[in-house]
UniProtKB/TrEMBL annotation:
Metabolic or biological pathway: Cofactor biosynthesis; adenosylcobalamin biosynthesis; adenosylcobalamin from cob(II)yrinate a,c-diamide: step 2/7
Membrane-crossing segments per the record: none
Domain Cobalamin adenosyltransferase-like: 3-169
Identification of the protein by name: Corrinoid adenosyltransferase
Organism: Paenibacillus silvae
Length: 191
């Protein structure tokens, strides 16, 4: 089987249940999820090269990559097919548990954080922003067609996860987060 099919030369692509133009909201949503998955892979490569203890984070990110494929698959359905959906709210709950676990390692945050610090932290912040874009594209898609709502919830929580683990990457490497110094104290940590 060859890589090229020529079926998209006229600006259309196949989705589950039909064909759409390549800039269709559906394609934009799952295409942005695919882009995010690439950046997650890049972050994993930085973990593999890091001199710290990140095996837990590496394993979690590998699982996130699988789940991002699930998200894209769920959004590729032209007609709603709940019985075939892969993304479930249990995945959102598990992300919340991971967020709480990693956040317990982080120093208190009172101001907005500027992306940066270690290379790994910076890469995870890129994941966070691309994840937010994927969420926006998914919201746009959901305004005019039925989607699996668990995908939207998953992406929302995943961006929070990336924020927290970006901070954890800095903390474990003993690199200070970069605070936005012109910000008032806006965050209050629950005690």
């Amino acid at each position: 089987m060859g890589i090229y099919t020529r079926t998209g030369d006229e600006g259309q692509t196949s989705v589950i249940g039909g064909r759409v133009i390549k800039d269709d909201d559906r394609v934009e949503a799952y295409g942005t999820i695919d882009e995010l998955n690439c950046f997650v892979g890049q972050a994993i490569s930085l973990i593999d090269a890091a001199n710290g203890d990140f095996e837990d984070l590496r394993e979690h990110l590998l699982e996130v990559q699988q789940e991002l494929f699930d998200c894209g698959s769920d959004l590729a359905f032209v007609r709603i097919s709940e019985t075939k959906y892969k993304v479930r709210d249990e995945m959102v709950t598990r992300l919340e548990q991971w967020i709480d676990q990693y956040d317990s390692e982080n120093p208190k945050v009172e101001r907005f954080i500027i992306p940066g610090g270690s290379q790994l932290s910076s890469a995870l912040h890129v994941c966070r922003t691309v994840c937010r874009r994927a969420e926006r594209r998914t919201v746009t898609l959901g305004q005019h067609t039925d989607i699996n709502p668990s995908v939207r919830r998953y992406l929302n929580r995943l961006s929070d996860y990336f924020f927290v683990v970006a901070r954890t990457a800095n903390a474990r490497q003993q690199v200070a987060d970069i605070e936005y110094v012109r910000s008032k104290k806006v965050f209050r940590r629950k005690e």
